[in-house]
Design a protein that fits this description.
Low-confidence stretches: 1-14
Structural class: alpha+beta
Strand content: 5-15%
Oligomer: single chain
Radius of gyration: 39 Å
Shape: elongated
Largest sheet: 5 strands, antiparallel
């Protein structure tokens, strides 16, 4: 077969190949190879079944979190590994006897591709990526079997995609760059997860700094992967200045809001004005920060509703942070007593009632003061503190009201209704 892929006579190749295959099938050597491949597959299946017992016993000695994963993956590749070992024994025997075994070599390529696909399927979660990798592996194996791999590589190496005085890129180089970029981006995902876990486990880092470092890693790791992929194919990054300038112009014209949210998010994290776990008041409700990303802050309310608030909203409108420097929050409520009751006793009862509620903290202690002498009652304000506002404020107010009610009933203190004195003045009509 000619090494020049561009002048390859496809019609002649297709017409001659079936005759060559029929001639080879009728030879004793080919039949021996076919029998070895089939017999090797059956032996590999039997050996894989025998290996289940030792694998189960070995997995039982591993930590519980690893045992199931190891057993599944070991059984998943046991058959092709045993088959490949048997085929290699046959190939080495043929090499020692100076025999050419093309069918055996083709079977080795296909089984090797099968093993590679199964190994990659453990780490590649995307179905599309799994199919792409499987297709590429079998395609390379098929091209190698048909002696088309090297001619195809030569042809791809001559097709120019980009050519300047500084940079010469062929189609083969471009494909190589895409493969390297895909591998690097795949590796950066694992590196990002590993570094993120280490950052979250670092006790010396504040929550805001942890979020900042995670966001910076999410931005810079893919950028480094792209630059490394370009460098591996010989692309001079200085030649991309014009392209970077065009990207910058596009950002200035069409991505102003996205960049504003990104910069605002970094500003919030660096200034530590908002951090995960803070209690924020947003419009007519409040909730706690569950996540901070490059575009928005996630605030979850007690009702389970999550508000995705753009980062620049806090920069432009400010934020009411209930736990900026301290998680404790002061709450208050009002109650009225009759003028016939003792206000000194009522103030003491209000303080004791508030302190009896579990969620009310002891220091600072609850206080009660007379607000005013109203039309129908002596109005009292009760102040108390809690340190878990994310659990709600209305419910703790309700508990304090009920505690005051019970103690007022026991002490004979009444909460009066509004009273009005109406005088009817009659005049003599002349």
């Amino acid at each position: 077969m000619s090494s020049n892929f561009q002048t390859l006579d496809v019609a002649r190749f297709l017409s001659e190949t079936p005759h060559k295959i029929l001639e080879q099938i009728q030879t004793p050597l080919f039949l021996t190879q076919a029998a070895l491949v089939v017999f090797g597959g059956l032996c590999a299946w039997w050996m894989a079944r025998l290996a289940r017992g030792p694998l189960v016993r070995f997995a039982a000695k591993l930590p519980r979190s690893w045992a199931a994963t190891f057993l599944h993956r070991a059984q998943y590749i046991a058959l092709p590994l045993h088959w490949l070992a048997i085929l290699w024994i046959g190939a080495l025997t043929g090499l020692a006897l100076n025999l050419k075994l093309p069918l055996l070599d083709a079977a080795i390529d296909l089984v090797t591709a099968w093993i590679v696909i199964r190994l990659l399927s453990f780490s590649v979660k995307s179905h599309v990526m799994s199919v792409a990798i499987a297709s590429a592996a079998f395609l390379i194996a098929a091209l190698s079997i048909l002696d088309l791999y090297h001619p195809l590589m030569n042809w791809l190496g001559r097709v120019e995609v980009y050519n300047t005085k500084q940079t010469h890129i062929t189609l083969l180089v471009a494909i190589h760059a895409l493969i390297v970029l895909g591998i690097l981006l795949w590796l950066t995902r694992f590196l990002y997860r590993f570094l993120q876990r280490r950052i979250e486990q670092a006790p010396a880092l504040t929550p805001s700094l942890q979020v900042l470092l995670s966001q910076l890693l999410k931005i810079f790791l893919p950028a480094i992967a792209v630059m490394v992929a370009l460098q591996t194919v010989g692309v001079d990054l200085t030649t991309l200045t014009v392209a970077f300038g065009a990207v910058g112009l596009g950002i200035g014209l069409g991505l102003q809001k996205a960049v504003s949210n990104l910069v605002s998010g970094l500003t919030l994290i660096i200034s530590k004005s908002i951090k995960p776990g803070d209690i924020l008041k947003y419009k007519d409700t409040y909730g706690w920060v569950t996540n901070m990303s490059a575009r928005y802050v996630t605030v979850r309310t007690l009702g389970g509703i999550e508000h995705l608030i753009p980062n620049d909203y806090f920069i432009e409108n400010g934020v009411e942070n209930w736990s900026y420097s301290d998680a404790s929050v002061s709450l208050s409520l009002s109650v009225g007593i009759s003028y016939d009751d003792d206000p000194h006793r009522a103030l003491q009862i209000c303080r004791e009632a508030a302190a009896s509620v579990n969620r009310v903290i002891k220091a600072p202690a609850p206080t009660a003061v007379i607000k005013e002498f109203g039309d129908s009652s002596i109005n009292i304000d009760v102040f108390f503190w809690i340190d878990d506002p994310r659990l709600g404020t209305s419910n703790v107010r309700s508990e304090v009201f009920l505690a005051i009610w019970d103690r007022f009933k026991a002490a004979g203190i009444t909460i009066p209704f509004p009273q009005r004195d109406v005088r009817i003045v009659s005049e003599k009509v002349q």
